[in-house]
Amino acid sequence: MLDNLIQIFEQSLTVLLVFIFNEGDLALFLYKFVPFVLFLELPVYAFIWIGVIRSLQRQDAETPFTQPFLPRVSGVILSYSEGYEITPTVLSFLEQNYAGHIEIIIAVDGSIENSETYKAAISMITLADRYQNRSIIVLPKLIRGGRVSSFNAAMESASGEFLMPIDADTTLDNNVVQACVRHFTDKNTVAVSGPLRATANHHSVISRLQSIEYMISIYAGKLGLAEFGVINNIPGAFGIFRKSFVNSIGGWNTGTAEDLDMTVRIKQYLGRYPYLKIVFEPTAVAHTTVPDTLFLFLSQRLRWDGDLSYIYLRKHRLAFSPKIIGVKNFIATLWYGVSFQIVMPCLIFVYLIYMAFVQTASVFIATMVLIYIFYLLLTVCQFVMFLMLLSERPREDIKLLWMLPVFPPFAFFIRIWSFVANLNEWFNKGHLDSAMAPWWVLKKDKY
Length: 447
Description:
Layout: H1 2-23, H2 26-33, H3 37-61, E1 73-79, H4 87-94, E2 102-109, H5 115-123, E3 134-141, H6 147-157, E4 162-167, E5 170-172, H7 176-181, E6 189-193, E7 196-197, H8 205-227, E8 240-242, H9 243-248, H10 258-267, E9 277-280, E10 286-288, H11 294-315, H12 322-325, H13 327-358, H14 361-389, H15 394-397, H16 407-428, H17 439-442
Parallel strand pairs: 1-2, 1-4, 2-3, 6-9, 7-10
Antiparallel strand pairs: 4-8, 5-10, 6-8
């Protein structure tokens, strides 16, 4: 197999060298055949990994946290139609090694139509009796109102100083609450997040590829960005908030992409209060279930990537000012949030069309092979760095090594699909077609 790859590489290089020779202009070749997107991507990856290394160095130099700080925490499990599948999530809260009290609120959205989930939640109340400083409250919302209404209803019922909402298909490592809560000894910390791992289901190729994506793009990406104070998002699947602050800004807002919406709304205070912090705790690992079929994956990413355009370019477009979100977050949002995540998929699509229809088939294939080899090397480098520097489960993660050759085409496909999602949002207002809330709730958002 290696000999075949080398042969393909040699043939591709020959084709490109012939083209350069015929054109007689290296600059023209670089312009046409070295994707300019690399010049946008490589600085992003370098910035992220510099942040990762800087974070690890800082953690090594820090004095271990010893101050007793055991505030009451309200963990909120957002459930809809999961039934007894919420049991592992409940147990992961009960089995936390946190010595303080954890109040577990199981918010059952649409409990009338989802009676099985409601019954499952009720049956778990007595589980808390087996654990010290644990309690379970079931919050039935008779009519479905969506994730945002579940967040806000749970916040009204919560007695904890800190609110920790997670999805019903997400579980926590035993140290998560303790690791996150300690950051709130700093009164300026308003929210804490941690690594979200796609390790709950490894049943298919598509779920394994997402696991790699979560490692090198989401896990490492958030840690690197957070080190410079410009974390892009507190995921809806797992985060912990200072309840008094969330109350002061009016709770969660109507509409889809409530996690990114909340993150952007928090950042809108940073221009006036630059001392406020959103912290990333790398030892607080949560595990979530990801789509394990191509159809489910495409549906999820159509919503995710379309919602990104909706939040940045529609709902909060007027907020992107250095005076409102601060200079650092303004630059990071334009560079990473808009250019890297929204503009680049469009550029990649245009580049692909140009190569496919303007250049000859041999040049097109040769260029695609070289691009693949470049991204494969980049993926391998990031994967190895992740294993060496970040992974808390290297023996498990290394089992995904055989999937790395498939990851570059997968990542390329994600970018093309992101372009489709952007079109769906721009021309069809795709955020109104979301499974996260009923249509009549989404319509209440004026955007």
